[in-house]
């Protein structure tokens, strides 16, 4: 009987013109989003790979130079595109893609897509995640809002109950039928999008990529179940189709439109961030308490030199077995980098606190839970961006200290004319960024992951245990 009832709901859905029309529109939008996402992914990946190769080639191709000149010449770090980023652009559109790496200076990332595009980009982008997060729930609402209310209005529900079925069994049959109807739209679309993804990656599959993809699809299936079970539940608890539809649309507008904006503004209000100019001024002021390798009259430099003379038991810097200029530069670089890391961590923590306001709100709103989970798995959230910036800064520091070490061990004191052979930097490893593991990605948004699972479990509990208790004919 349950199987028959589920089949009846599937057939009814396929005959429903609203479902067919909305389903066709969503499939079309998913196709457009997937194709445009892959095209954008391929283009941006190629551009960044080419730019990184060119930057590495230019650095390694520099002629014989003074190592400190090479430290100021610097290099560049370009953030590679995450393999799943075409599913969910996340914050990638608004974050920088390139960091200039130079001595004594920590630069922010530049050249975000929104900086280089027109104002229309600020209104949003058509992505696979947008269709899955916004439009699929809307399709579910229009498909299921009258699943019980119509039975009540036509008085056919009493007939079903007279056959010995419980309300929970009827609801479960409807859930199965509608799930099959939705799968006719969602599964082919996701499979095609996944095929595009594999083609974009040259059909190369590794364990990390495959795990991210499977978890990405699983998270969205849980999200769809939440809306599907919730819509059927609300239909069961209402007497009229109109009231059920209005309530469901109100929930959708609140969850997807109003609440994300409110929580984002609340986070910015509670945890205010300094401007770039303010942070640069703070770092510059704090770094000024360290050694200045370019100022021979600096008192801290004089004290360091005096200690160095005592250590090697010599009377002048010219007698030292190492070049004090290079050591002073290395000490100054270590101090300024430590200051920058502390201020950067404070700034990153402030942004994390702002984000936490929305993430904790995911316990009240499954849309916020899936949004952060989706960005985490796609590698387009703030945590991945900060991870890249720290990797770039770590490489910048190691490169600067390598060149300072060359100055300290290969050149004499105050020697500004000698040029070292370019093999000293030609053989230095180029910048290479590795995406963090999926465990790290989900751990950065554990609240959202737990919230999504709690919503799924809560709806399952209400659907199977409490629907009969609060159901009214």
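^ structure tokens above, recovered residues below v
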């Amino acid at each position: 009987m349950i199987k028959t009832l589920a089949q009846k709901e599937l057939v009814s859905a396929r005959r429903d013109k609203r479902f067919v029309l909305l389903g066709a529109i969503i499939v079309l939008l998913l196709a457009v989003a997937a194709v445009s996402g892959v095209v954008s992914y391929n283009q941006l990946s190629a551009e960044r790979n080419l730019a990184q190769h060119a930057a590495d080639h230019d650095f390694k191709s520099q002629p014989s130079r003074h190592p400190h000149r090479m430290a100021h010449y610097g290099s560049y770090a370009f953030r590679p595109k995450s393999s799943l980023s075409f599913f969910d652009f996340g914050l990638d559109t608004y974050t920088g893609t390139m960091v200039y790496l130079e001595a004594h200076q920590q630069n922010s990332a530049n050249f975000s897509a929104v900086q280089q595009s027109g104002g229309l980009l600020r209104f949003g982008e058509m992505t696979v995640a947008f269709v899955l997060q916004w439009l699929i729930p809307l399709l579910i609402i229009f498909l299921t809002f009258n699943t019980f209310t119509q039975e009540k209005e036509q008085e056919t529900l009493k007939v079903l109950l007279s056959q010995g079925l419980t309300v929970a069994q009827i609801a479960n049959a409807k859930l199965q039928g509608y799930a099959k109807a939705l799968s006719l739209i969602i599964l082919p679309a996701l499979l095609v999008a996944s095929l595009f993804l594999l083609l974009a990656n040259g059909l190369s599959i590794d364990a990390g990529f495959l795990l991210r993809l499977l978890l990405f699809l699983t998270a969205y299936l849980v999200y769809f179940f939440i809306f599907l079970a919730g819509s059927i539940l609300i239909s069961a608890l209402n007497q009229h189709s109109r009231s059920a539809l209005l309530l469901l649309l109100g929930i959708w507008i609140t969850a997807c439109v109003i609440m994300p904006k409110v929580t984002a503004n609340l986070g910015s209000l509670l945890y205010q961030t300094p401007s770039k100019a303010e942070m640069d001024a703070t770092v510059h002021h704090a770094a000024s308490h360290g050694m200045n390798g370019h100022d021979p009259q600096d008192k801290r430099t004089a004290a360091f030199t005096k200690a160095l003379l005592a250590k090697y038991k010599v009377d002048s810097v010219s007698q030292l077995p190492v070049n004090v200029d290079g050591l002073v530069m290395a000490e100054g670089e270590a101090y300024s980098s430590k200051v920058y890391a502390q201020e950067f961590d404070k700034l990153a923590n402030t942004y994390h606190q702002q984000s936490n306001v929305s993430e904790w709100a995911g316990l009240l709103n499954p849309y916020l839970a899936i949004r952060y989970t989706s960005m985490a798995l796609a590698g387009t959230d703030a945590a991945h961006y900060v991870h890249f910036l720290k990797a770039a800064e770590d490489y910048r520091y190691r490169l600067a200290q390598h060149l300072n070490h060359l100055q300290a061990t290969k050149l004499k004191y105050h020697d500004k004319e000698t040029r070292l052979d370019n093999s000293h930097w030609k053989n230095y490893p180029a910048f290479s960024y590795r995406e963090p593991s999926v465990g790290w990605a989900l751990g950065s948004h554990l609240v959202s992951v737990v919230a999504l699972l709690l919503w799924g479990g809560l709806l399952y509990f209400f659907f199977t245990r409490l629907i009969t208790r609060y159901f009214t004919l």
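Residues 23 and 184 are 9 Å apart (CA to CA).
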